[in-house]
Write a structure and sequence with these properties.
single chain, 332 residues, 12 helices, 69% helix
């Protein structure tokens, strides 16, 4: 999550939702110098793309042994524990500044708890590859939301990117390839779209926020907020369901906690400080591509023309949005 973070996004592109990562810039108080060489930063970025892409079928496998909300709760608890450990190792755990509390709460509730909970439930009904594509429509919903709520101009490259992406969504839901009569299919795809819209709302909410702590300092508290929010939901919805403690589940939880959440979170923050934001944004577009490939290899999911066309249009639209943001930044 899984993509769960706390830095202010310079563009409308999200990071991977499968591990709830941070956005693409560090806060104002963070050092400006890179902590790794450019070569190592690219290696870290490639590693994160693979980890997050592969995590889509890994999550699907995990749902065979654990109920979805309990799975989401477990991921947030493991993420919190790992990030508290990282924070302690980097100089100590600090309570969030009161000015950062709104971001801690909204990221924890929307980007982590709500998004991850909805996506995890949806994975019961939707193939992992398709899920990874639809989850990446988050940035598309930011465009009209920011235009309506923040008065941002919608034109030129942004409009083209938005229309390309929405064409991809239309392809994914075309009646010829989508079973509108299957209730579970409708629920799963609807939850994925709702999750993407909620994350988009959170991105819009944090624009313009002045940061008083780094992403790594705020992350443990954001994971904690998410865990607290998911706990009563898991108890109410899944109190009578059991967990099948298999070796597969142990591997899935280990992958989702220390690796796809804690390590990937640190890696993205490090990459964001070493590489231009546009590079990171465009690079993370490899996540749904990796997700589709990994789902085919690991789960035997078919690569359909609908998924390929939708993926191409959505990724193309997101790339166009990122390029439009770079042009706007240069103009300023």
């Amino acid at each position: 999550m899984s993509d769960t973070g706390s830095a202010r996004p310079p563009s409308s592109l999200p990071s991977s939702p499968s591990s709830t990562p941070p956005k693409n810039t560090a806060p104002a108080t963070a050092p400006a110098s890179a902590t790794v060489t450019t070569r190592r930063a690219y290696l870290l970025l490639a590693t994160v793309i693979i980890l997050w892409g592969v995590n889509w079928p890994v999550m699907k496998l995990g749902l065979a042994d654990i109920p979805p909300m309990t799975f989401a709760l477990s991921r947030m608890v493991l993420g919190a524990l790992c990030m508290f450990g990282v924070a302690a190792a980097r100089g100590g755990i600090r309570l969030p500044d009161r000015h950062d509390l709104p971001i801690v709460i909204t990221v924890g509730l929307l980007q982590m708890a709500a998004f991850l909970g909805l996506v995890t439930v949806a994975l019961q009904f939707v193939p992992a590859g398709r899920s990874s594509i639809l989850a990446y429509t988050t940035a598309l919903w930011v465009v009209p939301g920011a235009a309506i709520l923040l008065g941002e101009r919608l034109g030129g490259r942004k409009l083209v990117g938005f229309l390309l992406g929405m064409a991809g969504v239309a392809v994914m839901f075309n009646p010829a390839a989508f079973d509108w009569t299957d209730r579970n299919v409708l629920i799963g795809n609807g939850l994925l779209m709702l999750a993407a819209i909620l994350w988009a709302a959170q991105i819009i909410q944090v624009r313009g926020h002045v940061w008083h702590a780094s992403p790594l300092q705020l992350a443990p508290w954001q994971f904690t907020v998410a865990a607290v929010a998911l706990l009563p939901v898991a108890i109410v919805m899944e109190s009578g369901e059991s967990i099948d403690w298999t070796g597969q589940l142990a591997a899935v939880l280990f992958y989702n906690g220390p690796i796809a959440t804690a390590f990937a979170f640190w890696a993205v923050v490090t990459v964001n400080r070493a590489l231009p934001a546009i590079t990171t944004s465009l690079g993370t577009l490899g996540v749904p591509v990796t997700g589709v490939i990994a789902s085919t290899v690991m789960l035997g999911e078919p690569v359909t023309p609908t998924n390929l066309t939708g993926l191409a249009l959505i990724v193309g639209g997101l790339a166009w949005l990122a390029l439009g943001d770079r042009k706007a930044s240069r103009a300023r």
